[in-house]
Amino acid sequence: MLSITCSGFGGQGVLTAGLLLANVSMEAGKKLTWVPSYGSEMRGGTASCHLRIGDSEILNPFYSRMDALIAMNEGAVDKFV
Q: How many Å apart are CA 79 and CA 73, to the nearest integer?
């Protein structure tokens, strides 16, 4: 099971990057979860999404240890590393 976090500011394409990974995974026949998280601001607020991708059913979409981080800014690195 692969656990991936995408994080950055709103408007940087954080959620879109996660959706692209989710769509590619679905096309490859994988099971997945995609959990977005964002503030109420349109742009400039924090945004992130968490994906779990695997071959079998995913019972819990959350994880405590990630396999990959896609960070769009230094603040995202500081928060998730």
A: 10
pLDDT for residue 77 is more than 80: yes
Q: Measuring CA to CA, how many Å separate 44 from each of 8, 13, 38, 73?
A: 9, 11, 10, 11
The tokens for 67 are: 């396999």
Could you tell me where the DSSP H helices lie in the chain? 14-27, 74-80
Pairing of strands 68-71, 31-38: unpaired
Please report how many Cα atoms fall inside a 13 Å half-sphere around the Cα of residue 41, on the Cβ side. Answer: 8
**Which residues are paired to 54 by β-bridges?**
31
- pTM for the complete prediction? 0.89
Residue 39's φ and ψ, nearest 5 degrees, are -80, 180
Only one residue has tokens 């994906």, namely 51
- The mean pLDDT of 13-32, rounded to a whole number, is 96
The Cα–Cα gap between 10 and 30 comes to 28
